[in-house]
Design brief:
71 residues, 4 helices, 3-stranded antiparallel beta sheet, single chain, alpha+beta
Length: 71
């Protein structure tokens, strides 16, 4: 897990930082992280391929390090 974090770009780190608070929809992630749509989608795609984030429901994204509870 530590090695995975060494390879993250600043955009990926910004997304992961926002996801520490819990699952977020992509539009909110973009606003909170300050990333434009292209950068956000690139970061989410890369993080998803690495297994660091996952889509949990519709447009809701979560860090795999932070468990998602569907209430």
């Amino acid at each position: 897990q530590a090695a995975r974090h060494l390879c993250e770009s600043a955009d990926e780190q910004a997304v992961l930082h926002q996801l520490r608070a819990g699952p977020r929809p992509a539009d909110l992630l973009g606003r909170e992280s300050g990333l434009d749509v292209t950068a956000l989608l690139r970061a989410l795609g890369t993080l998803e391929q690495r297994g660091a984030v996952r889509r949990v429901a519709g447009d809701l994204w979560a860090s795999v390090d932070a468990p998602f509870t569907n209430r």
